[in-house]
Amino acid sequence: xxxxxxxxxxxxxxxxxxxxxxxxxxxxxxKRASVVGELDDWELLxxxxxxxxxxxxxxxxxYLERFExxxxxxxxxxxxxxxxxxxxxxxxxxxxxxxxxEVVKVKSMATQEIELNEALEQAGISAWETDLAELxxxxxxxxxxxxxVPAIHRNRxxxxxxxxREMGRVxxxxxxxxxxxxxxxxxxxxxHLREKFLRAKVAVSGANFAVAETGTLVVVESxxxxxxxxxxxxxxxxxxxxxxxxxxxxxLEVFLQLLPRSSTGERMNPYTSTWTGVTAGxxxxxxxxxxxxxxxxxxxxxxxxxxxLRCIRCSACLNVCPVYERTGGHAYGSxxxxxxxxxxxxxxxxxxxxxxxxxxxxxxxxxACYDVxxxxxxxxDLLVHLRTRVVAEHHGWRSKPMDALMGLAGWVFxxxxxxxxxxxxxxxxxxxxxxxxxxxxxxxxxxxxxxxRDAPAPAAxxxxxxxxxxxxxxxx
Length: 476
Known about the structure:
By secondary structure, this protein is α/β, with parallel strands linked by helices. It is 52% helix and 10% strand. The radius of gyration is 26 Å and the shape is globular. This is LutB/LldF family L-lactate oxidation iron-sulfur protein.
């Protein structure tokens, strides 16, 4: 995967992608604004959500142990995974122990993060996504591009063609007369998935929240497919990031107001499923939780960066981000796209690769992401913090010409006489570089700056020159 600047340039050239993104994100933004505006105490809810998450992170070791005790007492089994490799090995071993060779999955970003599907495939185990958008992505041999709506980059006509071409190869085929009507597409997906639900003996899930007090896991969704995964199979394996904990059952009252409004623009989720351990004759006979670290402890150690772990995966920041709306999620090279991905991914994966080094720069720092975040993550501050870290760890990673330019700028601004000379030169060149009122394309490497923005041409007379002309050089 190329670094963001290269990937974004390619995405910007895709007119259909930009149309799909603009249409979808604007619709979600409007719905969110409407339902959030109904609550007089929305800012208080944000503060409460941020406070609960911050408190949990400050005592995460205690709450993780409490959660393990509660799950065990309820008949479940807790497994601890330091990284993706260990988590995948645990899940594969659990599936093999059942003797099964396939699993059904309810949407889980943690399993995408560790590339569980690929690991299962290499182990000879088929994994079937059951969330509608995830199904579209899987059948299209694609990758998710949005936290909430993984197939946001596809339109209805594209989805119809994917269903007609791919469904019959892995299960019940799509109807020959399938149209791009949403109801018909949903019905085709329902028929295709039904046989998998009824056949599968093992399910893999994620969780939106994990309650330390009771050992309860919570999944919120819009379709009901998740509930089929959570109740029909005999063995349920839940892969959960350690940051998903909340201390008490009562805390869900805050998050079950914040999450649906911020994500889908709804007052309530259509399906909110909770499960605690196992119960004889009701639901799965075996329940396993894989608690995933995979870089989260490193992020927790950063007093500034740790606030990214508050994220409840609502995707509100993606839907307001002018960068995401124009490039889509694939350009970020991570399962976590958009503003939150730009601050979370480099902390989970580190900044060894150019892809991760570029992510903190994939933003205009407009601040819209912070305004809508339901748990008040100050993403602009985090972006600046991580840019500083990238420079400190990989000095000059972007380009030596850019470093030279920054050095030259520092030299100019370091002396008033040099600055005055450059201002006179800029004013004199106004007719050349700014004939239409804005600075035109400059030669490389300055073209990297002018190609991405419209900046006003230099003034015909600088403030310094005006002051000396009108005040005779007198000091203020």
